[in-house]
Amino acid sequence: MTKVLIATEKPFAASAVEGIKDILTQAGFETVLLEKYADKSALLKAVEDVDAIIIRSDVIDNDVFDAAKNLKIVVRAGAGYDNVDLNSATQHNVCVMNTPGQNANAVAELVIGMLLFGARNRFNGTSGSELMGKKLGLLAYGNVGRNVARIAKGIGMEIYAFDPFTPKESMEKEGVKHVDTKEDLFKTCDVISLHIPATPETKGSINYELISMMPKKAVLVNTARKEIIDEEGVFKAMKDREDIKYYTDITPGNDAAMKEFGDRYFATPKKMGAQTGEANNNAGLAAANQIVDFIKNGVEKFRVNK
Ligand code: 3PG
Which residue among 37, 107, 170, 214 has its CA within the 20 to 30 Å range from the CA of 43? Predict the structure, then answer.
């Protein structure tokens, strides 16, 4: 019988786990659940005899592929798959997929929530500011960026985006102003929201120079990966400029140092952009359906490795 492991250090909502199990049971597959595991050895043990794995930000490296002798497919229930060693997957003849777009609205709502929380001084009773009329800059206009734009439009923000992979016309059709360079985006916008993946090219790319270009009282929001941020650069820019604020959905590597910025800095306690029942259902069920389709019909839509 085909055995599917749900390996989530950060568990899905219970409804998503039930939904995944239903899909797999109907397909005649067995489901095994490994949640909140304490260390890698638990994961290595659990993968030994499974055919497929559903994960979130769980790290699937060469050791996992070596241990999982029957493995045919790994589906990352979510967008970013930098937590999976794609080369090792290919060498082990394992297909890797993601579920693009399935949790995009959840992340976008968190962006807006963090912005409102900051603009209203963390709801501390003092006089804050409004988002209406402010310039919002989206660094990348993919699934999350588009959802942020949709919500921000309702709030009355003026929206700009830089994305070399999205044609100017399609941005403009959606009421978003296209900018030619990343630098122009940072120079123009009161708020910058980051939606780029972590790749060798983007790692550390949000640096001192870029942040220093931001206008007075600018806010930087990161709900993407922490690796894209050059933390030393952020520290330096925030020390030079006492008007800059930084909100992040990932605890930075040097959280203690960031804390010195007081109200100008906020980090969620755990990565929670995609942490909603709806997003877990969307991504989890999509992952289960993709596994069934792959095992039964060889469908490789959303494959991300060669
Ligand atoms: C994603 O890449 O889809 C998000 O970062 C969600 O990550 P998570 O599943 O660990 O919450």
Answer: 107
Alpha helices in the chain, H assignment, sequence order: 14-26, 40-46, 62-67, 86-91, 104-119, 143-155, 168-173, 182-188, 208-212, 231-240, 255-258, 277-297
Nearest CA to ligand 1 atom 6: 274
Q: Using a 6 Å cutoff on CB, does residue 284 contact ligand 1?
A: no
CB-side exposure of 119: number of CA atoms within 13 Å?
Answer: 15
Q: Is the CB of 198 under 6 A from ligand 1?
A: no
Give the separation between CA 206 and CA 159, rounded to whole angstroms: 20
The tokens for 282 are 């969307």
Q: How many residues can be counted in the chain? A: 306
State how far the alpha carbon of 91 is from the alpha carbons of 61, 174, 185, 260, in Å: 12, 42, 40, 45
Which of 274, 234, 224 is CA-nearest to residue 258? 234
Residue 19 is predicted with a pLDDT of 98
Residue 277: helix, strand or coil by DSSP? Answer: helix
Positions in the chain short of pLDDT 50 = none
Q: How far is the CA of 127 from the centre of ligand 1 (A)?
A: 34
Picking from 300, 283, 258, the residue whose alpha carbon sits closest to that of residue 101 is 283
Angle 104-119/277-297 helices, nearest 10 degrees? 160
pLDDT at 188: 98
Distance (Å) from CA 1 to ligand 1 centroid: 29
Give the integer Cα–Cα distance in Å for 4 and 33: 9
pTM of the model: 0.94
Q: Give the torsion sign (CA, 286, 290, 293, 295).
A: negative
Measured in Å, residue 242 CA sits from the centre of ligand 1 at 31
Tokens of 262: 């007081």
pLDDT value, residue 167: 96
Residue 101 Cβ < 6 Å to ligand 1: no
